[in-house]
Sequence to fold (305 residues):
Amino acid sequence: MRTTTVRVPAKINLSLGVGPRREDGYHPLATVYQAVDLCDEVRATEVDGDSVSVEVHFDGDGWREQAPVPTDENNLAVKAALALRDAFGVKSGAALSIRKVIPVMGGMAGGSADGAAALVACDALWGTGASRAELEEIAAGLGSDVPFLLHGGTALGGGRGEEVSPVLARGRFHWVFAIADHGLSTAEVYAGYDARHADAPPPMPEVPPTLLTALAAGDAAGVGASLSNDLQPVALALRPELRDVLAVGEQGGALGTLVSGSGPTVMLLAEDADHSAQLARMLLAEGVCVDAVQATGPEPGAHLI
Ligand code: C5P
Fold:
């Protein structure tokens, strides 16, 4: 049986500016995405017949299995395969197998990553020959973060997040991710954001110019000082204990500490690999998270298309 395997990184938002809720329920974003080398793997294998199935395997640590991942057509990898098949009139099926490393419902786009990887894997398996633009269009239909996961590296995100353009970024950054013991619903966090702005809608978002300057210069301290996330106050209101994680980052001299996306994962930017190991040890010693995972980003060559 023929098989294709695609490795896909998690994403973080170095800045996440969120505007007023749109008519369609989504929010306009001005964000800087970065891919980090915490990677899921999606394997697509040929099957007899036209069924598209998925199985999910968790790697190692018990916390990864705490959140349920759908194994029906609600799984974004299955949705991606079906959308590609519809778009190109493919008659074949596929057995998808996901090796999950990215925290589930952690604010790191794990589900979107699997969707992006499944698109690329099935395109190769079925010989669809989809162009980059065609894959990006299908990706945007699957979720706001999916086009960035195809793109990788460091990029600007506009629209509702699906409009991705490259940004000049130098250097590799050393991150530590503080994993929470249970996930947060992105939709719930955005609803909390709306409630906070019920009386005064937020302005249209912008990316902080200091962040772009620091990225262009490969200045990690400057990047750390410019990290920002409009959803952080909502995540902290829903999970007050995340403040303890932020405090450990500050005590440990992190260059910057921020809730990742809609949370609850918190990211700490370290000076180098040794500092990152030290921050991870501190987080675990303080008992403020279930795991502390070190990763660098952006991963060279992690672009899917
Ligand atoms: O696009 P995606 O399906 O990943 O979004 C999940 C949920 O997050 C949406 O249903 C919506 O509630 C919220 N969202 C939003 N504005 C965005 C992106 C996501 O309100 N720009």
Q: What stands out?
A: The chain has two domains: 3-166, 173-297. Residues 35 and 87 are 27 Å apart (CA to CA).
